[in-house]
Amino acid sequence: MPHTLGISGPTVSRLGLGLAALGRPGYITLGHAGDLGPDRSVQAMEHRAHEVLDAAYREGVRYFDAARSYGRAEDFLASWLVSRGFKPGEVVVGSKWGYTYTADWTVDAERHEVKDHSLAALRRQYAESRARLGAHLSLYQIHSATFESGVLDDVAVLGTLAQMLDEGIRVGLSLSGPQQAAVLRRALEVRVDGRPVFSCVQATWNVLERSVGPALAEAHASGWGIILKEVVANGRLGPRDEHPALQPFRTLATEQNTRPDVLAMAAALAQPWASVVLSGAATVEQLSSHLRALSLPYTAPLDARLLGLVEAPQTYWATRSTLRWN
User: What pTM was computed for the model?
Assistant: First the structure.
């Protein structure tokens, strides 16, 4: 059954595809190096991205997520849209500004991305995104909005974002870190000339990190579109992680006759306020696994058995910060 990205947003699929692991040779997902294999040339990566995008579209995925900092993700997405002959509006495309990719197509870079929420960065990166995605771009988000960056209090930035609304661009923000809920509640209050600026949020929610859930429910009740990311916790909830603390999760997945990543995706899809749940698949096989979550029954008793896995937000984000680029 079709549904929309918020009360007045475009029609989207329940499952979306994020290109964080497809647009650059290094990422923090466990086992990313094995997924990509030895050939990480731009040409090989573009071919791989197109393969996964084709598979996603065949299976009904209609939301695709990129960012300026995802290496060449926007370029790969743009070349796929053009080569397959898509017209604007046939799929929903979102991207983000606020980080600049700095790894120069290497995996062992000292810094892979640099955060900058200034007005200059917004203007530069918006122009870059529009140059690549053109009229396909329908959602533009602040990448990892935080109180520390001051972006939600920057009058010039907010005014420029409000102008995008008049161009037909939907404006949102993505969240990261232990204060996701507080930042979201602040964003719900943001107005420019009495008009709300944001109508969509992309947040980290998974069975280990649920703290933003109540705030997401509030945003949903206000008509916002809700996009969930990192629902497999960068691979911690996938089949590769053998940490003893997560053995109960793996055991429960086995009891359900499924894989851990499928159970993790199903948990996110079961949230009544979620508009889109992103798959971060780097291979067609991973995408196929994630798609199985759409048909996996997920009940309240099953969810209750997972509550013991919940980590304190500070603990979860501290662990995430130790994940290695590979």
Answer: 0.97
